[in-house]
Amino acid sequence: MLAMTTALAEFPALEALSPQTLEASGLSLSRGGLRLVEGLDLALAPSGALLLTGPNGTGKTTLLRALAGLVRPDAGAVAIGDQPAGQVAADTLGWLGHADGLKPNETLRHALRFWADMHGTPRTAILPLMRVMGIGALIDRPAGQLSRGQQRRAGLVRAALANRPLWLLDEPAGPLDGAGRDRLAELVAWHRSRGGSVIAATHQTLDWPGAAMLDLGMYR
Ligand SMILES: Nc1ncnc2c1ncn2[C@@H]1O[C@H](COP(=O)(O)OP(=O)(O)OP(=O)(O)O)[C@@H](O)[C@H]1O
To answer: Record's SMART domains (predicted)?
Structure first.
């Protein structure tokens, strides 16, 4: 199903994921008194991908936060696997928000070691994932000396190092160039080939095979 040009052998061998289903039913969301989403049903199976689109301010980030359990819905519920409704186990979500989780004065080596250690992922996974994202040569550069696109690539490595089955990515390709978007597609294809799933909010066209699309502009 998933076309990949990067050989799977170039990706690190991580502990197997525990794939999860995600189901939202009758979800209604508001922010600042404005109804953003009304009665939304969605389902995502292991290996699935969903792209959230829509103009600025239509609620893509809010929906991602609701799926992560960070925003309380006005109505409806989110269920992940057999986890209790409204609760998400700590080892389920790989989250990449607008921030990349990097400190300006820290080298990528230092920062990504921290994140790998925090998630119990072997440090040997760092460099292969950086190479997949095309930033292996930047490992000893402080994050503050990198371009926005390079920082985003490092943020994606950080998210992958968490080795979680359900990725929620907010504008993962925002500052990426075409090559960066191709590398992101490879990273996502690898994740899906392991049973992982992904939901991403995007203003970019992302060519992820078989990805479902949800345009939040329809509620406007
Ligand atoms: N802290 C807040 N308090 C009140 N309203 C907010 C707050 N944050 C966001 N909003 C409102 O919620 C709506 C949805 O915002 P959200 O960030 O989810 O949109 P988005 O689709 O992700 O936008 P973008 O494409 O610009 O990232 C917007 O209309 C915004 O004004």
So the answer is: AAA
